[in-house]
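Please, structure for the following, as tokens.
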Amino acid sequence: MRGQMISIGLRSVLVIGLIACSVPALAQNTATPPPAAPPAQATPPRPTPPTRDPNTPGYVTARELPDGEIPTADAVGNFIIGPTHNPAPEMAAQEGVPQGTIYNLTMSSADSKIYPGVARDAGTFGTPDPNDPAKLVVTTSHPAAYTRRVAVYVPKQYVAGTTAPFIVGADGPDQLLFTALDNLIAQKRVPVMIAISIGNGSGDAQGSQRGLEYDTMSGRYAEFVETEVLPLVEKQYNVKLTKDPEGRATMGCSSGGSAALSMAWYRTDLYHRVLTYSGTYVNQQWPPNPETPGGAWEFHRRLIPQSPAKPIRIWMQVGDRDLYNPNVMRDDMHDWVVANENMAKALAAKNYKYQFVFSRNAGHCDRGVKQQTLPRALEWLWKGYPIESSKSARP
């Protein structure tokens, strides 16, 4: 992610003790040294996750496709792909295909009423609450300023000032998305749409600005986008964004993926279409909220099963080597594969329109998988939306 698919996730934590060395006294009047500082926390490399079998008992029943194939844009349900992940032809610029214009802007925390900014001290993380392993105690998070980049893609076919559908992406800028849209729009496989690829507010996981934005279980991030980002985009680039939730989509990877679903779940009046890679449907929320004590794990544990079905269409992917207990928390809510498998079960039980892709030979936010699947995933996501009925497209 962060513009191109990269692995973004939580870091494991190792407490490094300071080793005191005894030194013989050279004089009887040597002053007593001050007490040693508390141990610092470091973040060593994340352990390698195990490779999971998509046919593991308890996982959803899925159709395994021949190597190199991916589900069609009309298919619903569960699928297994891989182990080969060749880029789709739509992921490269094609001769004769009109290319959209990409505008870049920078937003500052000083201008935000919703997110004034927090950060966690470098080299620190947190410790599990001894009374509740589902809670992480973070003592090194504090107010901090930030800036974020926002990239706005306007297709060549867009008629300035007319109302257009759009997609909001997390961890931007995302050049892969822009390239795919160039080709898909030209082929009339998706509507002429604006893409708004929003950078996060820095950091990662609990105690960080990114974690606060993406892992909080509420409509707050959707409100931030609606009131602080979209009006700025419309004003600066002479575009008009639809208010129809059927014409609004969200996407992201890892915590950006769970944020994409939160935008639609908590603000269904704003978004009906969601696309996620390696969605962080796990317990990452901080500060904790007693209404959703398992963070995004609550989506499949309680929220989806116990709520009436919402008008949300969702495409999801997970890799066989996706994240597994990547940090110090041992709460049985930090297995990304199980989380996404549980999502598929919950969505199926409520008769949601969804497509779930389990990828063999794939890690967290796997770039190869994204290059293979993104064009078809976008086409699937926009099924049912008129391609050429609006006035936003040039003939």
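Residues 318 and 352 are 18 Å apart (CA to CA). The longest helix spans residues 220-237.
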